[in-house]
Amino acid sequence: MRVLITGGHGQLGRALVRTAPSDSEVVALGASDCDVTDPVAVRAVLARLEPDVVFHCAAWTDVDGCEHHPERAWRVNALGTQHVAAACFEAGARLVYISTNYVFDGEQDEPYHEFARPHPLSVYGASKLAGEEAVRALCPQHAIVRTAMLYDATGRNFLTTVLRLAAEQPRLRMVADQYGNPTFVDDLARALWQLVERSAAGTFHVVNAGNASWYDWAQAIVETLQLPVAVEPIPASEYRRAARPPRNGTLVSLALPTLGIELPDWRDALARCLARRD
């Protein structure tokens, strides 16, 4: 199985390479090797590599940056995905598109399953939802995977930010009234490979089980590592942002259990991620 990963140098792309099945041939390309905003370049890459599967991880995920520069967000997240989907159809490749919990407004109290109606509040969420629509319209062989709050032991993410701040400050102030599913990229990557192995098609919510606020998550990091730092809960209204995140961004899956795929609880995942730190 020949596999192409767009956005292959990001934290999910690296995790997909780490967890790839032994019988797969994986090519992970960054933006300089596969500019998704250039349809000619995208078609040329697929024609040259002839992949069986494309993991489309490339995206502009700076949520607040998308609010300040919406044209770039639409060009990368929506139009870029349209280019990849069209090229996959032409090449006969199966497409796995990585989407987000930001496609929902977060106003309901219960978790969002795959058949809940999207209603994004931000440019980022709207541009990613437009990417979903392009995939459904242009590439029949597809799986759309919504996920949330991705992290790894390295790179730029909430976990590494908390560790950096904890080394600099005696007290951390974290939002306690916005919720989601902290998701370890290795667990997500393994589930994505399982979806490919099962030739799964449709829309899937793939996150670690359970939910947490940013405060809960930070507190769990501090407690697990026994760091001498206090974590103070604050309301989202005290943390000004350009984008409005969903209050309840918690995802749940109706589809994964039918395929025999289950991700561990987010606290278990966090402990495993922290245990492998250098």
If you had to describe this structure to a student in words, what would you say it looks like?
The chain contains 9 helices and 12 strands. Helix 2 (39-49) runs parallel beside helix 4, helix 6 crosses helix 8 and helix 8 crosses helix 9 (266-275). The longest helix is centred in the first third of the chain and has 22 residues, at 70-91. The chain is globular. It has a single domain, classed as Rossmann fold. The strands form 4 sheets. The chain has a 6-stranded parallel β-sheet, sandwiched between helices. It has a two-stranded parallel sheet with strand order 6-9. Helices cover 39% and strands 18% of the residues. By secondary structure, it is α/β, with parallel strands linked by helices. The model has no long low-confidence stretch (mean pLDDT 96).
Q: How is the topology of this model organized?
A:
Blueprint: E1 2-6, H1 11-18, E2 25-29, H2 39-49, E3 53-56, H3 63-68, H4 70-91, E4 94-100, H5 123-138, E5 142-147, E6 150-151, H6 158-168, E7 171-175, E8 179-180, E9 183-184, H7 185-197, E10 202-205, E11 212-213, H8 214-225, E12 230-234, H9 266-275
Parallel strand pairs: 1-2, 1-3, 3-4, 4-5, 5-10, 6-9, 7-12
Antiparallel strand pairs: 8-11
What's the average pLDDT? 96
**Annotation field: number of helices:** 9
Order of helices and strands: EHEHEHHEHEEHEEEHEEHEH
CATH architecture: 3-Layer(aba) Sandwich
| Radius of gyration from the alpha-carbon trace, in angstroms | 18 Å
Q: Could you name the CATH homologous superfamily? A: NAD(P)-binding Rossmann-like Domain
Q: How many structurally independent domains?
A: 1
Number of strand elements: 12
Shape: globular
Measured between the Cα atoms of the first and last residue, the distance is: 33 Å
Helical percentage: 25-40%
Here the CATH topology equals Rossmann fold
Which structural class is indicated by helix and strand composition?
A: alpha/beta
Order of strands, main sheet, comes to 2-1-3-4-5-10
The CATH class label is Alpha Beta
Uncertain runs with pLDDT below 50, 5 residues or more? none
Strand share of the residues? 15-25%
